[in-house]
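Feature request, filed as a ticket because there's no other form

It would be nice if the structure record came with a short human-readable summary line next to the tokens. Right now we just get the raw output. Example of a typical job, pasted below so the devs can see what we mean:
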Amino acid sequence: MGSSATAGAGGAGAGSSGAATGAGSSGAAASGGTGAAASGTASGAGGSGASGGGGAVPVYPLVTPPVRAAAPAAFGGTGAIQTFASLGTGALLYASPPVSDGDASTAEGLSAADIASRFFNSGPTDIYFILGSIDSQIGTINTQLQNGAQPCLGQAAVPYTITPFGETVTLYAQCSQFVGSLTPADPGFLQFGQKDGVTYYYAAVGVEWVAAIVTPVGTTAGTSHDAGTDGGNGAESGAVDDGGSAVDDGGSAVDDATSTVDDGGSTGNDATITLDDGGIDADGAAANGGVADAGSPVAYTVHAWSSIGFTNATNCGDMSGFDDCSYGVIELSADPSTQTFEMSVAGIGFGYCGAQIKSDGSVVFGAGSIDMGTTCNATGTLCIEASDLSTPATCDASIMSFALPALGRVPSTGPNAGGPGVPHDAGAEWAPSAYPGGSADTIVLDGTSTDSLHFGPTAPSPGVTPL
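Raw output as currently delivered:
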């Protein structure tokens, strides 16, 4: 899986600028059609609630597209998908001092190009790859839901608690699924559910664990369909769109072939429209009865947590210990409706002992401690325009104030702490992060089953039904 989300299994669905479609018989079009996702957004499960589609099923939105829609262009956001020379493909990502490459932020202590390469481009710490892994599972889930009724969907959502990186967070699940394990210690399962319109995902699979809360923000205005009779081909009598709405009228089996399909290729791309209404009226009736649609979500916010490196000791590098490949934690939040994006990280082999960045769509501010292996550099900062990696910007108090907690690793031992070429020594020490520093460093990275990577259940929560 690359640096953009992938389409789920099933029928066709086109997306632009890193958008991804769900699985099923269509992207988000009327039954039998082919839907197109707007730029940076995700279409739902194909056929979900489509007129003539055999009944509505839940739509489980993808995680990556809203994050891309909120991320600044300099870090691969949908404003401009960029490619940078990868620094993140080695067996162990030991950081080196930033090299002056015309990046104005280098003089301030951090390299924006390095951050972009490590966390927003191909490599083990690429957030688009990490979130894409759960999107792949979502595509499979949506396909399964389209293929028949699932009893777990009828049960009340079961609350359970995760404790990522010092926080306590309540998630909800209705369904669970085992997807296979790489090792006996690999839980190899996921659980998910929806409550009050919010979708919750949790997956403990292979090298990483991921939890995400995906919340709809606002709805499109409801539109009234004409009350005319069928024209014989499933189209409404007028065979026109819903008065300029970004959603389809849902009445035509060919998705209004004479118009721009889902507005996917039109100027402006309706970048914040996430789901086609599928032709469903507020009462669930077919879309030519003269009843107004309830509207569709305009955007989704995402709050996600991820831990990376669970199978290092047996499936990565020279398999000499937990710390011979990237090992650490990431938390992020994204709100496309306000173009707000934040991320906090702490790790071994991440390039940063602890760091965080924030963007408001105009500028990017970052602060962090570069990982030198046996030591961690003093805190450095960067302030750049969100559109590129080299233009200095002015960062005020609002952009320099983070909503997410700062993450930094505490001292720990590991056989690879001496650095490349140094003989393995189980007593060698990984230095503590200088950012946020001191007692504010809370991330324990020692390869045990109780360190900070382990933040959630290792088996389905009691009461959650298998899919």
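Something like this underneath would help us a lot:
The chain is about 10% helix and 20% strand.
The chain has a mean pLDDT of 71.
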